[in-house]
Amino acid sequence: MRTFSARRSAFTLIELLVVIAIIAILIALLLPAVQQAREAARRSQCRNNMKQLGLALHNYHDSNQCFPPNSHGNATNLPNGFSWRVMILPGLDQGPLYNKFNFSARITDPAHLVLCQTVLSVLLCPSDPTSGVKTDLHVNWCFPGNASQPTGVTSTNVCDIAGSTYDTTAAVTSYAGVAGLSVDAGPGGMFRRRQDYTVKFRDMTDGTSNVLMVGENSPSYNVFSAWAPSDSPVQTTHAINSANLTCGSTICSFPALPWPNTSAAQSFHEGGAHFLLGDGSVHFLSENMNLTVYQQMAHMSDGLPVGGLGQ
Predict the structure, then answer these.
(1) In the predicted model, what is the mean pLDDT of residues 218-228?
(2) CB count, 10 Å around CB of 82?
(3) Which of 46, 158, 251, 264 has the fewest CB atoms inside 10 Å of its own CB, making it the most exposed?
(4) pLDDT tens column, 260-273
């Protein structure tokens, strides 16, 4: 009579634990690689966004014989004007949105409030976790002219919206014009805070491949409205990502004090930020680069070109 041995129908506990351990090790090895691949894709998309901005800015210059100003409009107060990003909308295939803005009015007029909540992906770095719309634009939307003035105080002489306070809701952006060492005094950077201050190709006497035009400035650190003009374009007084060093791991937001170096270029990329140069090329600049060289690149006509970065 033949006998048959019993067959196992399942793993033993030890075998199961070994399999789980192997899977855990593989996940631990693969996860950083997956994260790096995703960040590389986000950085590539951020770079492409700035490329599109460069093309739109050059198209604007071709049509108007100058680059758009940081602030354009008929209002005496800078925050009531229109951002340079509004002016290049046709070059971003956003002609219908551009046509909805009334340039004889102010950006802060009630008719524009809904328009100013329009989010465009080309204006946002995908590495930045900030939402496309913010509700606390109480600094660069209705700038009080006095940084110590408390949030929530109505200022009809600055924000000509009936019953408004410093807080409002609008779409934000990760990209700001480069002003250089100072937001007001010229000559210097491409985008000064002054209203209707424009620059032409001929003004970049240091060479278009040597001049910074637009830099990253995360809305997690400096809440820029995408459509109202920035009261604090990127300044090169501070090194790239210096606000990160001030705020540590905490995302800074107004009106938390002490305020960080909010006008410094900053991003959520590891080690630096992307910049658009005058020739339309995009480069990633290290946060550890020589500060003097960085400041020279932001000045379009100081006679101290640092040499083209190439493509």
Answers:
(1) 73
(2) 26
(3) 251
(4) 456 788 888 988 99
